[in-house]
Amino acid sequence: CVCVCVCVCVCQVATNTMDNPLLKYNAKEYFFKASLCHFIVDELNAKLAIEKYEEMFPAFADSRECKLLKKLLDAHEEQNCEAFTEAVKEFDSISRLDQWLTTMLLRIKKTIQGDAGDLK
């Protein structure tokens, strides 16, 4: 699966940056993107990845990105599109989402609506 390969690659980049004093602040973004890739695969995959990333890089656990992921997981678990959309809007109001993030989030949201199609 392409998403799994992307997850592994992005996670590796994050792991490499978190040990570099000049790049460690970018690690949370890479862990965020890797988590979204895992989310595309399935909810459990994302949950386990997030837990792993929090252990590997404790600063990720306190980040806005991680808090968003947890809200998205809760909304997905409850099949609540409104809560999902609100969490994304709240995040976007402070940190604008780029095209890639928007695309990934829309793919995940479609799985809530029961319209997953072939996203993998």
From TrEMBL:
<dbReference type="GO" id="GO:0005483">
    <property type="term" value="F:soluble NSF attachment protein activity"/>
</dbReference>
<dbReference type="GO" id="GO:0035249">
    <property type="term" value="P:synaptic transmission, glutamatergic"/>
</dbReference>
<protein>
    <submittedName>
        <fullName>N-ethylmaleimide-sensitive factor attachment protein, beta b</fullName>
    </submittedName>
</protein>
<dbReference type="GO" id="GO:0005774">
    <property type="term" value="C:vacuolar membrane"/>
</dbReference>
<dbReference type="GO" id="GO:0043195">
    <property type="term" value="C:terminal bouton"/>
</dbReference>
<dbReference type="GO" id="GO:0070044">
    <property type="term" value="C:synaptobrevin 2-SNAP-25-syntaxin-1a complex"/>
</dbReference>
<dbReference type="Pfam" id="PF14938">
    <property type="entry name" value="SNAP"/>
</dbReference>
<dbReference type="GO" id="GO:0010807">
    <property type="term" value="P:regulation of synaptic vesicle priming"/>
</dbReference>
<keyword id="KW-0931">ER-Golgi transport</keyword>
<keyword id="KW-0653">Protein transport</keyword>
<dbReference type="InterPro" id="IPR000744">
    <property type="entry name" value="NSF_attach"/>
</dbReference>
<dbReference type="GO" id="GO:0035494">
    <property type="term" value="P:SNARE complex disassembly"/>
</dbReference>
<dbReference type="GO" id="GO:0006886">
    <property type="term" value="P:intracellular protein transport"/>
</dbReference>
<dbReference type="GO" id="GO:0019905">
    <property type="term" value="F:syntaxin binding"/>
</dbReference>
<keyword id="KW-0813">Transport</keyword>
<comment type="similarity">
    <text>Belongs to the SNAP family.</text>
</comment>
<dbReference type="InterPro" id="IPR011990">
    <property type="entry name" value="TPR-like_helical_dom_sf"/>
</dbReference>
